Structures are given as structure tokens and as C-alpha cells.
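From the methods appendix. Each design record in this collection lists the discretized structure first, followed by the designed amino acid sequence. Records were kept in a plain field format so they could be parsed without special tools. The example shown here is representative of the layout used throughout.

RECORD:
C-ALPHA CELLS (245 positions):
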């Protein structure tokens, strides 16, 4: 069992949960799996019900990644804007799942789309969370050549979050890819600097260094495991904690 932060004694007040687009595919190869969205929604609701303020950042890799479009000859910036639009679709899917189980939510997009969702307004997002709403941030930072990891780091800093939780398909950060290398072992703890120096594929380097500058812990855990989010928040869940030491 890993030592986790925040500990039982230091229950976080507000967190940002980053969910990659790929996680929304469930067992599928593409797109959005409704049951998977509902499972995530239940875990998010449980965290909210325990008194934690939550905001979410959703990726778009299950639908479109700018870099893949660019590899096929598309202009990179155009492809990245398409990727950002994919994150808005995912945000709406998760919003629907959350609202279907009685959780009040707001989607705020870094690309204004006022007939669909709110534009990103920092103080308004904070107010929503104070009222118990879950805020889902879509469209990353709103600029091409970035990723939703950077969007997650930026919003976590802006929202004054106590931790950035990165939900992945594995139990934390490993020495190698555990899906292809059976000798890979999981780190309980890492420092931001180690993550950057070892070039561990946790989050983009820019996101990791932003969290280092803001002194916000990154907690990597398996979001596909129902109930794991609550365990991690309670200080008992398997995960990797990235902090300053
Ligand atoms: N994207 C972007 N700027 C941002 C966030 C996202 O250009 O601030 C684009 C980029 O093309 C990226 C795509 O949106 O490939 C989907 O986001 P990401 O790859 O981060 O999703 P994830 O891997 O988390 O599913």
C-alpha cells in the first residue's frame, strides 16, 4: 500500500481530477462508453458527497488528437483545435452522466461556445464549486500546441486546488509500461524533478513543472477501479504521489 498524500489528517478541500479521453472508451477502441462515464460519475459524486470540492478536466484522445491529424498532413494548429472540440464532447458526456445521478454541474470551455456551455471564468468556476457544483473544464488551455494535461495543471493552480489527481488505466507511475514490461514496478512516491529527469510519462513536462512551481501534489491512480478515487482521497488507495521531496 502506498503512502498517499493528502493523508487522512489532511483531507483535501478542493481537488482537480484529470481524466484522459481514452479512459472514457471503457473496453472499446474509440468514442464514449456510457457505462464507463456513469462509473466515473458515481466515483466523483461520492467524493463530492464526502465534502470535497471538485473540478474536472477531460482529455479528447478517444476522439481526436492533434498530433495524429498533423501526421496525416493536416495543419497542426487546425488539428489541435479539432482535438479541443473533442474534449468539449467528452465534457458534455460526463456532464450528462453526472446530472443523471443528481449531481449539479457546469461545463466551462476555454473556447467560448455560449449555446452549449459557459465560457471559462475563473471566479465563476470557484463560486460553482463553493455551491457544491462540479465544474468540468473543457478545451484545455484553449490554444493549440498544448494538451489537456497542461490545461489540468493550469486550472488546478488557478482554482487553488490542494492536489491534481490524474486518473489513468494503471495504479500509478511505473519504471516502465506495465502493460508491456512484466518487470515494471510502481513508485509509491516521486519528486517533480525525478519525473522530469527520468522522463517518466506521467504528464507533459510543462504540466509537471507548473505543479512544481505551484507546489501542488500530483496523484496518479487507476480511475478504472471503481471506488479507488474515494480510497485515494481517504489516504488508503494505491497510487503514486509526486511532490517536492
Ligand atoms: N488540445 C490542444 N490544446 C489544449 C488541449 C488540447 O490543442 O490546451 C488538443 C490536442 O490536439 C490534443 C487534443 O486536444 O491532442 C486532445 O487532448 P489530449 O491529447 O490532451 O487528451 P487526452 O490524452 O487526455 O485524452
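DESIGN:
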Amino acid at each position: 500500500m502506498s503512502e498517499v498524500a493528502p493523508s487522512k489528517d489532511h483531507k483535501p478541500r478542493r481537488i482537480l481530477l484529470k481524466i484522459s479521453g481514452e479512459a472514457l472508451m471503457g473496453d472499446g477502441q474509440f468514442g464514449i462508453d456510457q457505462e464507463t462515464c456513469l462509473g466515473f460519475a458515481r466515483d466523483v459524486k461520492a467524493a463530492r458527497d464526502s465534502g470535497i470540492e471538485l473540478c474536472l478536466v477531460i482529455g479528447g484522445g478517444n476522439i481526436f488528437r492533434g498530433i495524429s491529424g498533423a501526421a496525416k498532413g493536416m495543419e497542426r494548429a487546425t488539428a489541435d483545435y479539432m482535438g479541443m472540440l473533442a474534449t468539449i464532447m467528452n465534457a458534455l458526456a460526463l456532464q450528462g452522466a453526472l446530472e443523471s445521478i443528481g449531481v449539479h454541474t457546469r461545463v466551462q470551455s476555454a473556447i467560448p461556445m455560449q449555446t452549449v456551455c459557459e465560457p471559462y471564468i475563473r471566479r465563476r468556476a470557484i463560486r460553482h464549486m463553493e455551491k457544491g457544483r462540479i465544474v468540468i473544464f473543457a478545451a484545455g488551455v484553449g490554444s493549440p500546441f498544448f494538451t489537456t494535461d497542461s490545461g489540468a495543471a493550469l486550472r488546478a493552480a488557478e482554482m487553488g486546488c490542494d492536489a491534481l489527481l490524474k486518473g489513468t488505466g494503471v495504479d500509478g507511475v511505473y519504471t516502465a509500461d506495465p502493460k508491456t514490461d512484466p518487470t515494471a514496478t510502481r513508485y509509491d512516491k516521486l519528486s517533480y524533478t525525478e519525473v522530469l529527469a527520468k522522463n517518466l510519462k506521467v504528464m507533459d513536462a510543462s504540466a509537471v513543472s507548473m505543479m512544481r512551481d505551484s507546489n501542488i501534489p500530483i496523484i496518479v491512480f487507476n480511475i478504472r477501479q471503481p471506488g479507488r478515487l474515494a480510497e485515494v482521497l481517504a489516504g488508503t488507495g494505491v497510487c503514486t504521489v509526486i511532490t517536492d521531496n
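APPENDIX NOTE: The beta strands are 14-19, 53-58, 105-109, 118-119, 134-138, 163-168, 189-191, 218-222, 240-243.
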